Amino acid sequence: MAKYLLLKHYRGGPAAVNDVPMDRWTPEEISAHMQYMSDFASRLEKTGEYIEGQALAPEGAWVRYDGPGRPPVTDGPFAETKDLIAGWMVIDVDSYERAVELAGELSAAPGAGGKPIHEWLEVRPFLTEPPTIAE
């Protein structure tokens, strides 16, 4: 089994087929989308492929260390940045092909008008071994 992170983007990835931003959806469309996501996760829980997932708020800040005895430096909120992650799901599957299959299915979550979004999802494998440095 291998773990993969499925990333959903508010923006920053290629445009979806049903490219109406979520802030322009009706409450019913948002509920249908969230129900699809919940049902998808429940199905994967039954097969042992679901680890965890969360939707993220658009607010946030960049933070970094600024030296001993100094407070962390922040830069934000960053809602105006090009790339904004909407949420993520961690899956544990037998192969990369299965991760891609599930990401494709997840991209069909309903959006505006109840039509599938067909959004692009980013599929990232978890790092399982430290990278090798060749000199």
UniProtKB/TrEMBL annotation:
SUPFAM superfamilies listed in its UniProt record: Dimeric alpha+beta barrel
Which Pfam families does this chain map to? Answer: YCII
State the source organism's domain of life. Bacteria
Q: Give every YCII-related domain span.
A: 17-107
Q: Which InterPro entries match?
A: Dimeric_a/b-barrel, YCII
* Protein family per UniProt: Belongs to the YciI family.
Q: What is this protein called?
A: Putative Dgpfaetke family protein
Q: To which species is this protein native?
A: Micromonospora lupini str. Lupac 08
Taxonomic lineage is: Bacteria, Bacillati, Actinomycetota, Actinomycetes, Micromonosporales
